[in-house]
Amino acid sequence: MRREKALAGFAVVLLALLVGGCPPPSARRGGLAATAPTVGMMSVERLAGRLGMCVVETDAVHVEFADFEDAVLIRATQPPTATINGLKEVPIEGLQVWQGRFFVAKSLEGTLREVLNKPVAGSTKPTVMAPLQDLSRTKVMLDPGHGGRDPGTRSARGYQEKAHNLAVAERVGAILARQGVQVVWTRRDDRFVELDARVRQANYVNPTLFVSIHADHARDHLVQGFTLYVARGASKKTWAAAHSLRRAMSKMSVKSRGIRKANFRVLKYTRCPAVLIEAGYMSNPYEAVRLASAQGQKALAESIAAGIIEFLRQS
């Protein structure tokens, strides 16, 4: 009886808290109560896209989006702020958080455009694409991740990441070769190659671009999508390559998780532009099928190759 009374009392207290407008901790982010977005708001992801930028890093209290010239950091503090290129700070009115996403007033776009000196989309004449150049002098190093005694992650059905990485890289290499690109490899069969050995190969060959191909894994089996990584402090050319790959890969029916910064060895210590691709999640049942199928690998390879070629023609 006492136990039942105690549980009943706890239920009454919890109900009072909820009715009184105090949401549980999971409904808060950075000290801001979760609030459904109102009229005149847009998501930070949409704001980034309208500015020609993309989200590169996010956590419970901030979102950062950038291109290869500028970066904007939005903080869910009290009061919320936007910091541009680590220097100028702009106050944000009415930042809202809903279902794990930031929403800001649409008027913030104009403020950021003014500070970043970005023209309004469609306000200038479209850029005339330069004539296609001969790609025979360009060199791309493809790095199929893992191999040999290092299988990487695997799907629930046992399909190994190392096999996926090599299969996709082979398809990418074939497409690039048909375009006249010189393709160099860190491995072309099921062998183990140390990370430092991959770096040494890249620095010896000094390719126009180094692309490392992987597949991801998460405890949450619902997580899906492709992610691109560049080193912290990456060069403008590296960022340009990452954006070209993101644009091309976004044309697939696959969620883009943006461009993120991480000091993986093959990114941090290579002296050439270098991008690491996590093509999808082996832990997601749907994506595991796509990553293992010939059709899925073909679509992925074609999009990666298209992104690489776009970068090479702009370099």
Shape: globular
Q: What's the CATH H-level superfamily name of the largest domain?
A: Zn-dependent exopeptidases
The assigned CATH architecture of the largest domain is: 3-Layer(aba) Sandwich
Gyration radius over CA: 23 Å
Using brief descriptors, characterize the structure shown:
disordered N terminus, Copper Amine Oxidase, Chain A, domain 1, 9 helices, 35% helix, 315 residues, 5-stranded antiparallel sheet, alpha/beta, 6-stranded mixed sheet
What can you tell me about this protein's structure?
The protein is 35% helix and 24% strand. By secondary structure, the protein is α/β, with parallel strands linked by helices. It has 2 domains: 24-116, Copper Amine Oxidase, Chain A, domain 1 (2-Layer Sandwich); 135-314, Aminopeptidase (3-Layer(aba) Sandwich), CATH 3.40.630. A hairpin with a 2-residue loop joins strand 9 (96-98) and strand 10. Helix 4 packs across helix 9 (294-314) and helix 6 packs antiparallel against helix 9 (294-314). It starts with a helix and ends with a helix. Mean pLDDT is 83; it is low at 1-30 and 121-132.
Secondary structure elements and pairings:
Blueprint lengths: L1 H18 L8 E2 L2 E2 L7 E3 H7 L3 E5 L3 E5 L4 E5 L5 E4 L3 E4 L4 E3 L2 E5 L2 H9 L22 E6 L16 H18 L3 E4 L9 H11 L3 E8 L9 E5 L5 H14 L6 E6 L3 H4 L5 E8 L3 H8 L1 H21 L1
